[in-house]
Design goal:
Blueprint lengths: L3 E9 L2 H14 L5 E6 L5 H11 L14 E5 L3 E6 L14 H5 L4 E5 L12 E8 L5 E8 L1 H13 L4 E4 L2
Parallel strand pairs: 2-5, 2-6, 4-5
Antiparallel strand pairs: 1-7, 1-8, 3-4, 6-7
Helix pairs in contact: 1-2
Amino acid sequence: MKSVTDSASFRTASPEESRALGRALGELLGPGSFVALTGELGAGKTVLVQGIARGVGFEGYVTSPSFVVINEYRGRLPIYHVDLYRISDPASLLDLGYREVFWSDGVTLVEWADRALELLPETRLDVSIEFAGSEARVLRLAARGDSASRILASLASAWPGGEGRCGS
């Protein structure tokens, strides 16, 4: 697996601010982008995905696909929203055609990505969301691969409050 080449942390004060950060990130994503999200239950993974989907051009309602595992949305690129919360064995993803989704020409957003780390693409953006108060969150982003590093660098320079940036 490719090592982390860049990282940055962002602090948001509310769900609306987390959605706005997601939107800014979504505007930077291109074909084949993969975002792996982790964090405790209720940390805001779906909230961030809602913003990312807006940034990719989807105007509809985004919900967590916990019971169906994969939702597909149409923006300027296809968006594949995957939720692995109910997956106990990563091998069960084989029957769902995960390869076509994970290596698509769209944008793939995976919640609970830590449940199937061995199946994730090497080039990706890892996002860990942590509680920092009742509504505040700290989002730690780590780029794996050059394309993810470019996306993260653009986000860090465009978003106020990016901190802890580490170059390659």
